[in-house]
Amino acid sequence: MTPLVVAQIRRRKPGVELHVLDLGCGTGITAAHLERAGCVVTGVDSSAAMLAVARHRVSAGTTLVRTSIDQPPTGPYDVVLCVFDTLNHLTGPDDLRDVLAAAAAVSRPGATLLFDLVTATAMRTWDGAATLPGELLLTVTGRCDPDGRWVEVTVGGNHPDGTPWSDVQREVSYDLTAVEGILVDTGWGQVRWTSYADLTATIATPDVERRVVGECYRSLP
């Protein structure tokens, strides 16, 4: 997905140096691609462990900041990215509003916001268990709300010394019409719904997709 996102950014804003805020940058996969595309990147994540991995993946020219995504460093930024289900990991619409408002506050007028969301359509199917083969065997168990409002995913396995570990991640879905209203209320314009299958195409019925991508712009004064 990352090369597609970077290509879409460059398609919209070709040939200029872009200052990009990568919210929930994780291990720096997207930041590294942005660097290679000539962008100046600031990555934000709350996980020190992920940022440590990211530091080895990106150059010294990329700024990495440990903070919550609703407290981004001062910009101004030309592009704000929030991908890989990051917004689904919030607790709900109030947190979403805080993040979008904070992103707008540090962005230039006309800045691009590109984000993705897993939908209720997908979350309704996240129920069951699977085993992921590899050097360290992982088990993944999903438990979802029948209406797709939330899902809990438990990932577990054993450390190299044989001791067990597990981690639980909870994600929530959003009413996409409500998201459209929150975007406008927080200083962004009307959203265009699309998908990773073709980021240039607009989706008329995003709710039926398993994952949607939203693209909009910072409102002018």
Which topology of the largest domain does CATH recognise? Answer: Rossmann fold
Low-confidence parts: none
Strand line-up in the sheet with most strands: 3-2-1-4-5-11-10
Proportion of residues in extended strands: 25-35%
Q: Bin the helical content.
A: 25-40%
**Average pLDDT level:** 94
Topology order in helix (H) and strand (E) letters: HEHEHEEHEHEEEEHEE
Number of helices: 6
Largest sheet: 7 strands, mixed
Count of individual domains: 2
Describe this structure in words.
With 221 residues, the protein is of the alpha/beta class. Helices cover 25% and strands 33% of the residues. The strands form 2 sheets. Strands 3-2-1-4-5-11-10 form a 7-stranded mixed sheet. The chain has a 4-stranded antiparallel sheet with strand order 6-7-8-9, with no helix packed on it.
Q: What is the gist of this entry?
A:
The protein has 221 residues and is α/β, with parallel strands linked by helices. The chain has helices at 2-12, 29-36, 48-57, 93-105, 120-123, 176-185; strands at 19-23, 40-45, 63-66, 77-82, 107-118, 128-132, 138-144, 150-158, 164-172, 192-194, 211-217.
List keywords for this structure.
2 domains; four-stranded antiparallel beta sheet; globular; 33% strand
